Amino acid sequence: MLIVVDQWRADFIPHLMRAEGRKPFLKTPNLDRLCREGLTFRNHVTTCVPCGPARASLLTGST
Fold it and tell me: Is the pTM value of this prediction over 0.70?
């Protein structure tokens, strides 16, 4: 399963905030569980700004 959400900053995701030693201000138990049990890309950046081309690039490896 690949969860892609528009306009989320990585520094606002509670699971990643805890990993950096910061106290989260949101409660997202389901997202936290998915992060713990799955794979989290912490340094992923997009090759382009619009969502459609960025997702196509992620899924195909093409730019």
Answer: no
Q: Is 48 among the residues known to form the active site?
A: no
Kindly list the domain boundaries of the chain, sorted by start residue. 10-60
3-state secondary structure the chain: CCCCCCCCCHHHCHHHHHHCCCCCCCCCHHHHHHHHHCCCCCCCCCCCCCHHHHHHHHHHCCC
- Confidence band, pLDDT 50/70/90 cuts, at residue 46: low
Please identify which of the residues 4, 19, 48, 51 carries the catalytic annotation: 51
Compute φ and ψ for 5, nearest 5 degrees.
Answer: -120, 135
Polymer length in residues for the chain: 63
